[in-house]
Design a protein that fits this description.
404 residues; 10 helices; 32% helix; globular
């Protein structure tokens, strides 16, 4: 598809119009003005998947291992996201949040988060039961910590602003079906409408489909995306919750547990759980794509992960099929809630990278090939961290462009 003598349509070709892809385009044009960037997005608008289907939280970075990419980029990204929203008049608020221990067994993990917060440079206040009630009168717990730098925002609006401010050419409805990469020449991408787009360097920010794009480019990503659906409810009595309330997470998993979040719209969102999805974009049990499900089941890591964590998975599945079980999880934090208070809301799907040995990739994962940068694991807190992540991807893409 790439021929000598045929001009390039762009210098950097980005696949994926979520917040990470568009932050990358934005970072490239700021770092190297005049660089031609084209973004291919298969949907008809940006932020249709992970970016637009999360709880809208600007994470502080308290959960993540010190010196990990997640810790560095989330802490930095939270401050930058607030500044970005302020600059462009995008709805946001710095609310703070509570992380609440409801059982004695959780207290050591809660104290561990205090230490981790301090190591990551995050101000943390430790609370007893009476102090919890000062923040959240209806929440019950043995102890809690208050993290003041957590906030909320409209990530879809952020993504649209990044698209507008980047100056990139953005092609919507451009689903990639073939990639021809020739290290001495560049890359050419064929989309479902028959268009061919040629670039000098390719950046893969395809989220739920990033491993497939890597293979189309001729690279072995060494992982597979295993999609996990996160199911949400909204709270019919939003006055029960003032702000953001989280349980103490299990450090063995990259999921934060069922939490309560007062969003920028004033409503309170509850969730998500984490159940295997039967399609990459499987937002309900009725969405099944046999080819995608078959690819997941054929990956040895999926079976090894299931064998290692099946007890956790059974609990998540139970909360998925039983509203009363889901309500029980919420009642640990908010005893006044009833099943009637929970109104079903739209779900999201997390693009979780799983290695061949069954390891759930816990950090952001960025790998490079000839003339190519692949973003292979960028779930939460990637929206929070999107501005510094975008700069790091841009740095690698521009280095590849300079060497092309």
């Amino acid at each position: 598809m790439v021929r000598v003598g045929i001009g390039y349509d762009c210098d950097v070709l980005v696949i994926g119009g979520g917040i990470v892809g568009l932050s990358t385009a934005y970072a490239i044009t700021r770092a190297a003005p005049g660089t031609r960037v084209t973004v291919l997005e298969k949907e008809r608008a940006p932020a249709r998947h992970q970016t637009g289907r999360n709880s809208g939280v600007i994470h502080s970075g308290i959960y993540y291992r010190p010196d990990s990419l997640k810790a560095r980029y989330a802490v930095r990204g939270a401050a930058e996201m607030v500044k970005f929203c302020t600059e462009y008049d995008i709805a946001h608020a710095v609310t703070g949040k509570l992380i609440v221990a409801t059982e004695k067994a959780e207290l050591p993990r809660l104290h561990g988060l205090v230490q981790r917060g301090r190591e990551n440079g995050i101000p943390v206040r430790e609370l007893g039961p009476a102090q919890i009630a000062e923040y959240e009168p209806e929440v019950r717990g043995l102890a809690a910590i208050h993290v003041g730098t957590t906030g909320i925002c409209d990530f879809v609006a952020v993504t649209r602003q990044l698209a507008e401010s980047s100056g990139a050419e953005i092609r919507y409805g451009a689903d990639v079906v073939r990639i021809d990469r020739r290290p001495g020449l560049g890359v050419a991408v064929l989309t479902t409408d028959g268009a061919v787009v040629r670039g000098r360097v390719l950046v893969n920010c395809a989220g739920l489909h990033c491993d497939e794009i890597a293979r189309l480019a001729g690279d072995d990503p060494g992982m597979r995306i295993v999609p996990f659906r996160g199911e949400y409810y909204t709270l019919a009595r939003p006055d029960l919750v003032r702000g953001l309330v989280y349980p103490v997470p299990d450090p063995a998993f990259p999921f934060l547990g069922v939490h309560l979040t007062r969003g920028i719209d004033g409503g309170v969102h509850i969730g998500p759980n984490a159940v295997p999805a039967l399609a990459r974009e499987g937002y309900g049990w009725g969405v099944v794509r046999p080819r995608e499900l078959g690819a997941t089941l054929a990956w040895p890591g999926a079976w090894r992960m299931a064998g290692r964590h099946w007890r956790y998975g059974v609990g998540e599945l139970r909360r998925s099929v039983s509203k009363s079980a889901f309500t029980g999880a919420v009642r640990r934090l908010l005893p006044a809630v009833t099943a009637g208070d929970l109104v079903a809301a739209r779900a999201g799907v997390r693009a979780q990278a799983v290695l061949r040995d069954g390891t759930l990739v816990d950090d952001f994962l960025i790998r490079e090939g000839p003339r190519t940068v692949h973003v292979l694991n960028a779930p939460s807190p990637a929206a929070t961290a999107s501005l510094p992540i975008g700069r790091e991807i841009a740095r690698r893409a521009l280095a590849a462009l300079a060497g092309a």
